[in-house]
Amino acid sequence: REHSAMASKSGPSIHGIKDIIAVASGKGGVGKSTTAVNLAVALAKACQLNVGLLDADIYGPSIPLMMNLHRKPEVSEDLKMVPLENHGVKCMSIGFLVDKDAPIVWRGPMVMSALEKLTRGVNWGNLDILVVDMPPGTGDVQLSISQRLQLSGALIVSTPQDIALIDARRGANMFLKVDVPILGLIENMSFFKCPKCGEKSDIFGHGGAQRTADKMNLDFLGEIPLEIQVRSCSDEGSPIVMVSPDSLTAKAYVDVAGKV
Ligand code: ADP
């Protein structure tokens, strides 16, 4: 697919990368990183693209665990870091560089300079798409990333609850304010299907993200169930898209990948 069609006015700002898209959420804990990881793997495996994954969640990096990458990156001759690769995706995270239990207590400018190193200080090679796992919320850092990386688009993850959707709307409006196109909303933890009896329960409600997308005139990209395997695969460092590509959930992620 021709991804450059999606690029905003001036196009992405890192040499060799065609498109940079953000996976964002207004709140933490709604499944933003899980979505970013499965989307990146789906884009690489199912869509056959050259994909990178940047963990921009400096205070809570999840990519080392979710992609099972625990080494320190090497530095190449041009003094850039070589991204670590797993499941066909090139990854970079602050978690590769600092001790896993050390608290990261940096103020904003330090976070921005770290992010600068994690983006332009990396030998990404030629990428069709760089997926950015954003920090949760709509603060200074999120705004700076959106502007400095000249994002081609942003995808918003929310659970169906009002409390999460309010923040998702805030997130969407932040991107719109800086002219980053919203690729659409995803509803995570959309429903639970009992593995024993098959009954469906809407633990956090259902359909809220679709209604929010309709109200804001945004695309709704799909729903991902609350499922033990999504969590256990993440914890083991092998995303469900990789482990159970034939599952309905993996197909839902691939479907989202096809829409971005
Ligand atoms: P965020 O990046 O928004 O903070 P994470 O992706 O880290 O959220 O997810 C938070 C926790 O919820 C993780 O333990 C993850 O494995 C789990 N999780 C996320 N999505 C699902 C899902 N659809 N089903 C089950 N567990 C999920």
TrEMBL record:
It comes from the Eukaryota. GO terms for cellular component: mitochondrial matrix. The keyword Metal-binding applies. One of its GO terms (molecular function) is metal ion binding. Its cofactor is [4Fe-4S] cluster. It is found in: Mitochondrion. The keyword Mitochondrion applies. Keywords: 4Fe-4S, ATP-binding, Iron, Iron-sulfur, Metal-binding, Mitochondrion, Nucleotide-binding, Transit peptide. One of its GO terms (biological process) is iron-sulfur cluster assembly. Belongs to the Mrp/NBP35 ATP-binding proteins family. This is Nucleotide-binding protein-like. It comes from Dioscorea zingiberensis. The chain holds residues 28 to 287 of 306 of the full protein.
